[in-house]
Amino acid sequence: MMGTRVAFKWSKKITPSQVVHLIKAEKNIDEALAIFDSATAEYANGFCHDHSTFGVMISRLVSANKFGPAEDLLDRMKVEKCDIREAIFLSICRGYGRVHRPLDAIRVFDKMKEFGSEPSQRSYITVFDILVEENQLKIAFRFYRHMREVGIQASVASLNILIKALCKNSGTMDSALHIFREMPNRGCPPDFYTYGTLINGLCRFGKITEAKELFQEMKTRDCSPSVVTYSSLIHGLCQSKNINEAMGLLEEMKSNSIKPNVFTYSSLMDGLCKDGRSSEAMELLETMVSKCCRPNTITYSTLIHGLCKEGKLQEAVEILDRMKLQGLQPDAGLFGKVISGFCDVDKFTKAANFLDEMVLGRTLPNRLTWSLHVRIYNMVVRGLCTKSDLSRAFLLYLSMRTRGISVEAGTFETLMKSFCEKGDLQKAARIVDEMLIDGCIPEEGAWGTLVSAFWDQRMVQETVELFEVELMRDFTAPDLEIQAEAL
């Protein structure tokens, strides 16, 4: 900060617009704050910050998620009796909403009256929207009642937010539709956003017929559907297996010059893949890319799942490679799908290669995919044993133990039997030891295999034969002595 002050030379007359310009131009937030501080420190009893300089500095701090310093400046404005405008409070509220801290947004909203700033309809609607967006529905409904009690009139914007809140649960969808039908009577005709919100809600809860009716009504009311509305209905149709109808809507979008987005294409690909039409989904990917619409992780995941389901593993691997080339990292669940696909067709070495790639790329399973991860590792180790790739199976087994992946009883026994068959009794014994350490007791058949393997070893046979000779000598020696004495 000191370096900024020394390097920067203020003019004799500092103006608020000059300070605002410099703060906006400075990319580093700490240096921007240094500029803000140095403006008042440069000349004694000279420049004083006003609502514009405070406002831009608070906005910069909020954008950098520095909420503490932003609120400190708010308090300083009060101390310096600076005109505090509503927009400054709202910038902080929106910042808290962006980082999913809705209760802090309410706290700052409540501060407005303390600072002598009366919240307008705009402030109430902003906070109401933050609460709904963050699924704080009980608080949101209480807040809406409070809005009405203090005389905030219903508007299209406030009713749209209320409908959005009611569309979040299937049990309140009817209430959302009721308010929608009442909107014209309140002097608030529904707009494209109202229709889009309801269509999205109906589709989410499988009410496709009602969504389609509303979609047609929307067009008769001169409310042009947006890409979001089209995409919501396409997604709903795909979920209800009306794929051809969804594809028809895609063509309608194009004819109306509405550009499909990544969600539109991904929804259609998901529908096609679930309908066993992954080749058509692949064609749609090429169309999407040719239209400069960038695929995302969901797009690629959808295709890979569909291709693996149809046994098209080579194509699935190609899509996985395309995904990585785009800079998107496949997660453990996606790797798991490809690995399972190779296991299903007995290509366990390729499956093991992908497990190695996961480890090298530090792709870790989450809590939901951990059980699948464990199952896949065990499956690959057993599969490698059946394919006589025992050294690779053992390395993968060691990796499992190092990384805390549970080894199943069947995997222990498969490894032990494979080493016994190979004659590597040292490793077989080690497997049994580690099996017992893990509290896993081998079945009788597994014990039998191990004992037989030891018995069949030439060295063991020779040892037993020597033991028998010694044993016979111990038994026969007294008899010879007795015979000698008798003579």
The percent of residues in helical segments reads over 70%
* Individual helix count: 27
Main sheet attributes: strand count, strand direction, barrel closure:
none
Radius of gyration: 36 Å
Description of the molecule:
This protein is mainly alpha-helical and 487 residues long. It has a domain at 459-487. It has 27 helices and no strands. The protein is extended and about 95 Å long. The relative contact order is 0.03.
Defining key terms:
single chain; 487 residues; mainly alpha; 27 helices; extended
Write the layout of secondary structure elements.
Elements: H1 2-7, H2 16-25, H3 29-41, H4 51-63, H5 67-79, H6 86-98, H7 102-114, H8 121-133, H9 137-149, H10 156-166, H11 173-182, H12 192-204, H13 208-220, H14 227-239, H15 243-255, H16 262-274, H17 278-290, H18 297-309, H19 313-325, H20 332-344, H21 348-360, H22 370-386, H23 390-402, H24 409-422, H25 425-437, H26 444-456, H27 458-486
Helix pairs in contact: 2-3, 2-4, 3-4, 4-5, 4-6, 5-6, 6-7, 6-8, 7-8, 8-9, 8-10, 10-11, 10-12, 11-12, 12-13, 12-14, 13-14, 14-15, 14-16, 15-16, 16-17, 16-18, 17-18, 18-19, 18-20, 20-21, 20-22, 21-22, 22-23, 22-24, 24-25, 24-26
